[in-house]
Specification:
about 500 residues, 7 strands, 22 helices, two-stranded antiparallel ribbon, mainly alpha
């Protein structure tokens, strides 16, 4: 075959593969958009509790006026909730949900590009077609699916982590590691951690991934690569660090109220608080979770979900270790496995809450693909196994619903709030009691001040001391009926 004809054939092949890839994106986006529309207007508990209010809080500069109006969540970084507030306030359903979906969907090209890199490592040519079952299996993530079109931002920050993993994986070429990609990945990891602190363990896993990629029979390269990566993480975190600086100056703890046993803020108990609903009491407890996740479980989530992929990984790991290896694990594949294993272990020890694991959930299909390739040498048989696993995972999949409301397209009031004109026309000082209730606050007069009670006795004392200051604002109490008993007695008698 003549060189010119070979070149033309290669161009046609690449063009055809590009069409397949774009068609895949379009199909996924179409299915996701239809899924979001059919589910209806998002009305999850966190949206009512603090997502909507925090965007309002940040946009309107209420740092100096409000105090713990959304309870504990008042002290989480509000930046990402600005997008939730603006989309729900100014865009009608389903456009508001699709706007949110567009951000969440940026995870998909990251998974596809990473799959194509892994495809090459497994001995395929980078044509995308063999990677499709693994990519589809990755996207069969029940928690990611449950957050599509909602204000839950674990899925909003997941793209930062997935693109970081892709940049690190693809940085290793011809026995050298691209420093520019390490820096870019580090910045994205740092930004993800700054926007949502529960992403910080993934940055640690990213550091371990860099160490595996950098190791050259000595530790000098590992140290230099690690320092470069950590410095980049610091730069990424700095973009959101002003909020931590505010917490440090105002409350004596840059992560307030978390890790207060270390920082010792006077406004919270001297404990390292964590939600004890989510933890594994033993190794046996974790293994039972793996089995139960195949059929359905709420061990790590308020709402039950089913994800067969965890059991598949659990069964494939010993098979891959005991069988004659069909492939040799490259440095890149080893780095990816280390990232997945360390990320899962850190999640297990620190949180054990399912939605925080979304970035790894979106990579589980690729992990299964590597394990299957380690066991099965024949390419066609691998594909058949992957298709079978994907079909089984799809059949068993159970996507939780965090709360939706039926609404007519074009409606801009996502909460159906009907406000008495007295409260929207005149400002006041509001004692806010109970959750979720802060979504009502943006509908009140903008010159009002909001104080949430019942979070800590220290903050309650601060609020009631502020209440004694002279002001022309009327004092009002905003409470959910079922939680009116939480109104402090000293407030009732004041």
């Amino acid at each position: 075959m003549k060189p010119a004809k070979i070149a033309i054939t290669e161009i046609v092949r690449k063009h055809r593969e590009r069409i397949y890839e774009i068609s895949f994106y379009f199909l996924c986006l179409l299915i996701s958009a239809l899924f979001v529309y059919l589910r209806g207007q998002d009305r999850n508990w966190d949206l009512l509790s603090y997502h909507y209010y925090q965007g309002y809080f940040l946009l309107n500069g209420r740092i100096a006026t409000d105090l713990a109006a959304a309870n504990l969540q008042s002290f989480l970084n509000p930046i990402i909730n600005l997008f939730s507030y603006l989309s729900l306030k100014h865009l009608p359903f389903p456009v508001s949900a699709w706007f949110i979906l567009a951000i969440q969907f940026t995870s998909v090209p990251a998974v596809v590009l990473l799959a194509k890199e892994i495809e090459t490592s497994l001995g395929y040519s980078k044509t995308f077609i063999p990677a499709i079952p693994a990519v589809v299996l990755s996207l069969l993530s029940p928690m990611w699916g449950s957050e599509l079109g909602t204000t839950f931002f674990s899925s909003w920050t997941a793209p930062l982590i997935l693109w970081s993993v892709y940049f690190l994986y693809s940085a290793y070429q011809a026995h050298d590691l691209s420093k520019s990609r390490i820096v870019l990945a580090g910045v994205l990891f740092g930004l993800a951690a700054g926007l949502k602190l529960t992403n910080a363990p993934f940055a640690v896993s990213g550091l371990l991934m860099v160490a595996v990629l950098q190791y050259r029979n000595d530790w000098q390269n590992v140290v230099s690569g690690g320092v470069c990566f950590l410095a980049a993480c610091g730069v990424g975190f700095a973009f959101t660090g002003w909020w931590n600086w505010h917490l440090w100056m105002a409350w004596g703890n840059p992560l307030f109220p978390f890790y207060n046993k270390i920082f010792k803020s006077e406004y919270f108990d001297l404990i390292n608080w964590r939600d004890m609903r989510w933890y594994f009491a033993s190794v046996q407890d974790f293994f039972l979770f793996i089995v139960h996740s195949f059929f359905g479980t709420n061990k790590t989530s308020e709402v039950a979900f089913a994800d067969a992929r965890y059991l598949f990984v659990f069964l494939l790991i010993p098979a891959a270790l005991l069988s004659r290896p069909a492939i040799i694990l490259s440095r890149q594949l080893m780095a990816f496995i280390v990232f997945m294993a360390s990320g899962c272990l850190l999640w297990l020890l620190m949180f054990a809450y399912q939605r925080y694991l979304i970035p790894l959930e979106l990579l589980l299909g690729l992990m299964i693909w590597i394990l299957v390739a380690r066991i099965v040498e024949n390419f066609r048989l691998r594909t058949a196994v992957m298709i079978g696993v994907t079909l089984c995972a799809a059949w068993m999949l159970k996507v939780p619903d965090w709360g939706h409301a039926r609404t007519s397209p074009g409606k801009k009031n996502p909460f159906s709030i009907e406000m008495d004109s007295r409260f929207s026309a005149t400002p006041g000082r509001y004692i806010v009691v109970g959750v979720p209730i802060s979504y009502v606050l943006p509908s009140l007069h903008p010159d009002s001040a909001f104080y949430g009670v019942g979070f800590t006795t220290q903050l309650d004392d601060l609020i009631f001391s502020n209440r004694a200051e002279p002001t022309s604002l009327l004092l009002r109490i905003l409470a959910i009926d079922r939680e009116a008993f939480l109104i402090p007695k000293k407030q009732k008698t004041a």
